[in-house]
Amino acid sequence: MEISKDGSLGVDKSFGRGGLPGKDVLIVSNVEIHKPVVTYCDMSQAQKEFAFETAELAFKLMVKREKRYFKDLAELIKVAFDQKFEGKWHVIVGVHFGAFVSYESNSMIHFWINQIGFMIYKFG
Question: Mind giving me the DSSP string for 22-81?
Answer without folding.
Answer: T-PEEEESS---PPPEEEEEEE-HHHHHHHHHHHHHHHHHHHTTSS-SHHHHHHHHHHHH
